[in-house]
Amino acid sequence: MKAGIIAAGLGERLAAAGITTPKPLLVVGGKTLLERTIESAAAAGAQEIALIVNAESPDVARSVRERRWPVPVRLTVKTTPSSMESFFTLAPSLGDSPFLLMTVDAITARGTLDALARAGLAAGPCGTLAVTTFVDDEKPLWVRPGGAGAIEEIGPGAAGSGWVTSGAYFFFPSVYAHVEEARRRKLGALRQFLALLVEKGERLGGFPSGDSIDVDRPEDIAVAEEFLKAHG
Questions:
Q1: Is the pTM of this model over 0.90?
Q2: Which of 27, 83, 129, 208 is the residue whose CA sits 20 to 30 A from 149?
Q3: What pairing do the DSSP bridges indicate for beta strands 127-132 and 99-103?
Q4: What pLDDT is stored for residue 232 in this prediction?
Q5: What is the pLDDT of residue 149?
Q6: Exposed, middle or buried: residue 222 (CB in 10 Å: 0-12, 13-18, 19+)?
Q7: Distances from the Cα of 33 to the Cαs of 36, 89, 146, 227, in angstroms?
Q8: Full 3-state SS string of 114-143
Q9: 170, 120 contact by CB (below 8 A)
Q10: Residue 193: its pLDDT value, please?
């Protein structure tokens, strides 16, 4: 099993509030978000990590190259127009093995990624999404669970379900079969790609992962600190 980490966003809401530290290097609970995400992926069983960071924040790439990580980290430095394109950029590194996928700003309780990986492997293709009833994001991605744990709808139409994604996913390489269709439709976000998978009849399971925190705004840092004290 491998892991992919998307850390290529520009952190615009943090920057607008005067925080100049690149988001992956923000310290929460004594570790940077990047350190926390890489170490959590390795602890969940990832034997190799594919990481994408943007080219606008060279300190992030430098910190990756200077550290000795618990597993090999394949670094890609590229500024992409969306999280979806960042995910697609990682395809050469992730296309030969089942893999976890995380965004660098999502903080979950200890053991969550390990449990997600086990659930995803057991469920099989195409993938499994960590979902929660804890809505903390300004723009949550709503999902509607259906029969046998499969997700039957993703997006605004699922808003009444009470369930949202929590920033962690488990996929099999077959997920990349729909890249060209996504680009043909000019989709612009990972959430739109996930909705496309459901539309195409791919099975996406939902794994109840408990609470999680997305560090997008300055006030999220303090919330994440308290979350880590409570959940580890």
A1: yes
A2: 83
A3: unpaired
A4: 62
A5: 81
A6: exposed
A7: 5, 21, 33, 14
A8: HHHHHHHHHHCCCEEEEEECCCCCCCCCEE
A9: yes
A10: 97
Tokens representing 9?
């966003």
Q: Which two tokens stand for residue 20?
A: 């100049």
pLDDT given for residue 15 in this prediction: 67
CA distance 117 to 120: 5
Residues (pLDDT < 50) of the chain are none
How many Cα atoms within 13 Å fall on the side-chain side of residue 185? 12
Sequence-distant (6+) residues with CB within 8 A of 25 are 32, 33, 34, 57, 59, 60, 63
**String of DSSP letters for the chain:** -EEEEEE----HHHHHTT--S-GGG-EETTEEHHHHHHHHHHHTT-S-EEEEE-TT-HHHHHHHHHS--SS-EEEEE---SSHHHHHHHTHHHHTTS-EEEEETTEEE-TTHHHHHHHHHHHH-SSEEEEEES----SS--EEEE-GGGBEEEESGGGGGG-EEEEEEEEE-GGGGGGHHHHHHTT--SHHHHHHHHHHTT--EEEEE---EEE--SHHHHHHHHHHHHHH-
- According to DSSP, the β-strands at 27-28 and 2-7 are unpaired
Structure tokens at 172: 């099999």
Write out the two tokens for 37: 């995400």
User: Where do we find the tokens 């996406």?
Assistant: 204
